[in-house]
Amino acid sequence: MSIEERDPVSGYLTTGHVWNGITELNSPVPRIVFAFMVVTHLYALVAWFLLPAWPLGQTFTKGLLGIDQKTAVAADIAAANADRAGWMNALATHDFDAIRADPDLMARALATAEPLFGQNCQVCHGANGIGGPGYPRLNDDIWVWGGTADEIATTLRVGINADHPDTHFAQMPAFGRDGLLTGAEISVLTDYVQTLGAGVMADDPSDGALLFQTNCAGCHGEDARGISGSGAPNLTDGDWLYGGDAANLRHGLVAGRQGQMPSWQSRLTEAEIRAMALYVEGLSGTAP
Questions:
Q1: How big, in percent rounded to 5, are the helix, strand and coil portions of the chain?
Q2: CATH for 183-255?
Q3: Average pLDDT rounded to a whole number, residues 154-166
Q4: What are the backbone dihedrals phi and psi of residue 160, each rounded to the nearest 5 degrees, phi first?
Q5: What residue ranges are annotated as transmembrane (predicted)?
Q6: Do domains 87-158+269-283 and 183-255 have the same CATH topology?
Q7: pLDDT grade, residue 1 (50/70/90)?
Q8: What stretch of H or E contains 22?
Q9: Which CATH architecture has domain 87-158+269-283?
């Protein structure tokens, strides 16, 4: 229904439309809307002259103010790189005690290393260094090649059984496959190694003890606690890289073991390696 009338309250004409008893008013547009439109159009007009605005083929109008965000971003990046170069050089050249004594530098080292660990190490050693089958945990306090930042940095540089000329080298012989021990001897030795959680008994005359001292003590030590720098783990602490059950122990004795970690010297800078060493050192002892 269309009826022309004036609203008695506001005095505005209606549109003549009534919808379910509600009359539609023909209200004027508020003046503030027109003012806003004028201001925004004036601003746009001024901005066309002051700021980069119009495309001109392969270029654009530069604006009277000469503002160039690309140049500003490039300057910011250059400043950030200069600042980064300073503290990265400090990471590469300062000794670890000096880095630890500088809270800001230490914080930068850990912030740099955390994503590097995620990108390069986590796939094998697990999130937060929890390890996995065949890959050692980094969040305990058990270290075959040393757990200080200096020792960890060296291991990162040279790798383990890697192509670096100074790489850490460790290999457990394949006693069964290469005929060094008989199947029966391997069974006896397997049973004996499973008892080492209680430690090595002095002057033990058993066949297992004799086989161990003859074939294994050269790397794992006469007390089976490992020999520093040999890459041979402690066999008395209950921490097993490949598993301490009979099947895994026997497999290791038959087929041997030779873990591998790449040399990171050609993949990471010296500063990144040292930052990573501090980060991994900090993981030690955090296992629940």
A1: 50, 10, 45
A2: 1.10.760.10
A3: 96
A4: -125, 120
A5: 32-51
A6: yes
A7: very low
A8: strand 22-25
A9: Orthogonal Bundle (1.10)
Residue range 225-271, pLDDT digits in tens: 998 778 899 999 989 999 999 999 999 999 999 989 999 999 999 99
pLDDT above 60 (res 3) = no
DSSP 105-140: HHHHHHHHHHHHHHHHTHHHH-GGG--BTTB--SSS
Q: Cβ(192)–Cβ(212) under 8 Å? A: yes
Give the β-pairing of 14-19 and 22-25. antiparallel
∠124-104-130 over CA atoms, to 5°? 20
Residue with tokens 């006469």: 222
**Residue 89 pLDDT level (bands cut at 50, 70, 90):** very high
Give me the mean pLDDT over the 80-85 stretch. 90
Domain segments of the chain: what residues?
Answer: 14-60, 87-158+269-283, 183-255
